[in-house]
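Subject: for your reference before the review

Hello V.,

The reviewers asked for a structural picture of the protein, and I figured it would be easier to keep everything in one thread rather than splitting it across files. Below is the amino acid sequence we used in the manuscript, unchanged from the supplementary table.
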Amino acid sequence: MKKRILSLLLTALLLFTACQSKPDYLGGELTGDAALDESVKALLTEVCDGSSDPLAAVYDWLCSELKYRANPGESVGIFTDENTISLAQETLDKRRCDCDGEAALTAVLLRRMGYDAEIVQGQFLRGEGGQWVDHAWVRCTIDGVFYHFDPLYDAHFGSGDLTSCFMATDAEMQATHSWE
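And here is what came back from the structure prediction:
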């Protein structure tokens, strides 16, 4: 009887440990928009489930699934909660976006994953010796360190390896981006 109880306790402990070690991809901040929150939940579940590196899985999805569409008009300006939600939903629906839509969706996804993410407005250098172009991307705090995420730049303007702006430090980003 004691062996059985000990065995059951050991099994329960192993199950508890296994459940605790699995990351909670949906443990972060909701947007407050029911439709967007449901879409984000479905996307994160699909992209992250079974992945050993959920951040990389989300970044790869953003790089491969979003198509660039230049915005002929003005940029968003200041990103409010309302326009971030609206841009993120439009980007998810259409899978086409400019940098504002990409930054909004990236921020929403990272926040839902439990990270403190902010949209950065600045510029990027287009081409070797090229011109500086207005741009938006995301900076996220992970374990107390700031990292930049710019899947649109990596997918459409970068070197082609899709990793130069994935969890890039300030020093790494300054080669191609500027911000205040």
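For the response letter, the relevant points are probably these. The first strand starts at residue 67 and ends at 68. The chain is about 45% helix and 20% strand.

Happy to draft the paragraph if you're swamped.

O.
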